[in-house]
Write a structure and sequence with these properties.
2 copies of one chain form a homodimer. Chain A is α+β, with helices and mostly antiparallel strands and 434 residues long. In chain A, 31% of the residues lie in helices and 25% in strands. In chain A, strand 1 and strand 2 form a beta hairpin. Chains A and B meet through strand 1, helix 3, helix 4, strand 6 and strand 7 of A and strand 1, helix 3, helix 4, strand 6 and strand 7 of B.
């Protein structure tokens, strides 16, 4: 049998008979002709059915039935994309057993988000929905490619751990052969440990947060794009690498997901050569002076302050991105490196994208004694962390890193109102299936 | 300050002063000269210390102290790799606080595996140990690159699931906000579902198996290289793609981990253009005829039969790889597609590499009614699987896929006696840390 080709490749075969395979996406029955829209893994194509017997057979099938079609490729300015298939021979590979719960052929899916998520196996087939996951795939690959170019090594670290990473709360407990264990909230300890091995490492893997709130911004399981690098000057070295990684991600998306971008009508943001930077304390001063709100004694930025700063960066620097550095130590985890000049502030940063926090990173402590002191100051027991602390006992360079939430990145990029829209099979307080 | 360069790049700077950063890997004190061996994330370099004060200062440091060294690059045929650093100025960035638990400078680590794993933060720094993880990283990238070339889309699917994938036993239970849940044993259901979306998908992610046995071949958490593809003829289409993927993986390792291969003295295996194939029933006949063991009524191959078949493939075809197809349905999971001609056998396969099982794959059922029957025949309840079964209700093409265990692949490749040697932080019956 003739080799099937993708619908997106028929332009290279005008005047030839080709074989296509895919799903019965839609059937438009006019008086003298029927148009079969076939969807495959890449795109859609229009097939002109003039044979009334075939038209009738197709009309008897439910949408989403799986077909194989052989036909002649014809250039026709009237057809979508200027090409269509004529004189088709259709084989039904697997009929759908019921009408789909919603119409996949409409430009936009007409169902509420919970329904779309309940029927993910079907809703994800919609061209606009799946475009989001092509952007997601290209984002992962862009992250990896940018870091490989910078000599980072990919690692995979365990997700079942003996102690919580970011603190005792918000962990999922596992029964590990009768012993208590947890799902990793981040690969933080492991990626730092691996700086002692490769200096520069990255990981793309799931992380688990048992946060009991149900918001459009939170998931209980998400994909974390993590990196860590040694021999830095301070957190500014990490911020420069973040800029380089974001540029690489946007570049890879534009190369590998060009069709998807068109489908969701997305123009990729410009990543400035140097993303503007503001110190946390200056940000609060600015908010006091220009916004009129006095938050100068707050240890963190509120969502409304983040939004205001995002607008300010847009006005001031024509940048959709803003790096805020120097968050107070009190709000950062124990491994955070203080600012040597002002030790109440940290060498850490957040990246705001369109006024929303997208990335958190910073310089970490690298001296063993500093770890012991930091743990003691927070009343934490160093004993369960001995495998991690070993890395610092035996010589570690100044280092730092960051983590980007993949789904959060894509959600911000496409301006999805709910992060679940850019998650294949989301997990939240009320959702564990499909 | 001058930009640091990698030790592996000093050959491009002969006659220049450069800055290097890394760990005090070893110090060899001779009568008139001291050799400092500096290790960075990529390699080792020899630094000639003639200044007795500096030699004394270095001798006072523990191994693994972190240094920054500025010095003159000199070609010297006596030196390792023919290059060394002279006239060094050394800055101690972070002294090690204790002597390492074993000597990292010896060609091979002299400690038992449990000790090496307990001190993973240190043992992984050994050049030969870390070389294994460069091969592992290149394997992941080779898998992805080969499949991207074949138009596969990368996915990330949830690891917290409501029901066990491969059967009820051997799952880790989680407390999911008070509801019972499990860690995914494989992304099987999700990758099949995604065939309905993209036709061709792959995932590189952890899987979790609560198998209570402690062997050199098993881990309770490992990285699974998974793929699934639609519109196949039968399992043979999947086997051909597997061959293509293995070729890609070996190619990428040879390109991206050339130094690591040298360090562990590994010659990569040849992947035949067509890997020899034997049917399960023929394999048992052959074992009966030539090995003299009658296992013709067994539903599976024993490890000793697999080894014998591996040797046979080597003798018969000069191939280290052998594909065994047609395993009995009774030993395969419910979603396995039977051989239409002999329905007691399946359209599934195992790949043996050097006589050991490395990959499992096959064609899956694609008709909704076949799923209902298969579940009923095994006494399984379809209700909890409704999100998965939706994919088949609404039209799915013939499809199949395979999974390669990353650690198993690397272990076989480098002939590691224990799979834990090629796992950064292994998880087993007795090990949950570091």
């Amino acid at each position: 049998m003739q080799q099937r080709i993708w619908t997106t490749c028929i332009g290279e075969h005008i005047g030839e008979r080709v074989r296509l395979s895919g799903w019965l996406h839609h059937l438009r029955q006019l008086r003298h002709v029927t148009f079969l829209i076939l969807r495959d893994g890449k795109g859609l194509t229009q097939i002109v059915v003039e044979d009334p017997t075939l038209a009738e057979q197709l009309a008897s099938l439910y949408h989403e039935s799986v077909l194989s079609v052989e036909g002649l490729v014809i250039a026709n300015p009237q057809a979508p994309n200027g090409i269509e298939i004529q004189q088709p021979i259709v084989e039904v590979l697997n009929p759908s057993t019921a009408p789909p719960p919603f119409d996949l052929f409409r430009p936009t899916l007409k169902a509420q988000l919970p329904t779309l998520l309940d029927y993910a196996a079907i809703s994800l087939r919609h061209p606009q929905r799946r475009a989001l996951f092509q952007i997601s795939a290209a984002s992962m690959e862009g992250f990896r490619a940018a870091l490989r170019r910078e000599q980072f090594v990919e690692i995979q670290t365990p997700k079942m751990v003996a102690s919580a990473t970011e603190g005792g709360a918000n962990v999922f407990a596992i029964n590990y052969f009768g012993s208590p264990a947890y799902l990793a909230q981040s690969p933080q300890f492991y990626k730092q440990t691996m700086v002692g091995v490769f200096e520069r490492v990255f990981e793309v893997a799931p992380v688990f947060r048992a946060e009991p709130h149900d918001t459009p911004r939170h998931l209980n399981e998400y994909v974390s794009l993590d990196m860590e690098m040694g021999f830095i000057e301070n957190h500014r070295t990490v911020m420069a690498m973040l800029t380089c990684v974001l540029q690489g991600m946007v570049q890879t998306i534009s190369e590998q997901a060009a069709e998807a971008l068109k489908l969701v009508k997305l123009t990729l943001p410009q990543i400035p050569a140097a993303i503007p930077i503001i110190h946390f304390s200056e940000a609060l001063e600015l908010i006091y002076r220009e916004m009129g709100e006095d938050a100068r004694h707050e240890p963190d930025l509120s969502p409304s302050h983040e939004r205001w700063l995002g607008e300010w960066a847009q006005r001031q620097y024509q940048s959709e991105f803003l790096l805020v550095e120097g968050y107070p130590m009190v709000k950062r985890p124990f491994y955070t490196h203080p600012d040597p000049a002002r030790p109440q502030y940290s060498n850490s940063f957040d990246l705001l994208f369109r006024g929303l926090e997208l990335v958190t990173g910073g310089q970490r402590l690298h001296r063993y004694d500093d770890y012991l002191q930091a743990l003691q100051a927070r009343g934490l027991n160093p004993e369960p962390l001995s495998g991690y602390l070993d890395a610092f006992k035996y010589g570690m360079p100044p280092h730092g890193g960051f983590a980007i939430g993949l789904e959060r990145w894509v959600a911000r990029l496409v301006e999805a109102p709910n992060i679940r829209e850019v998650t294949l099979f989301p997990r939240d307080l009320n959702r564990l299936t499909p």
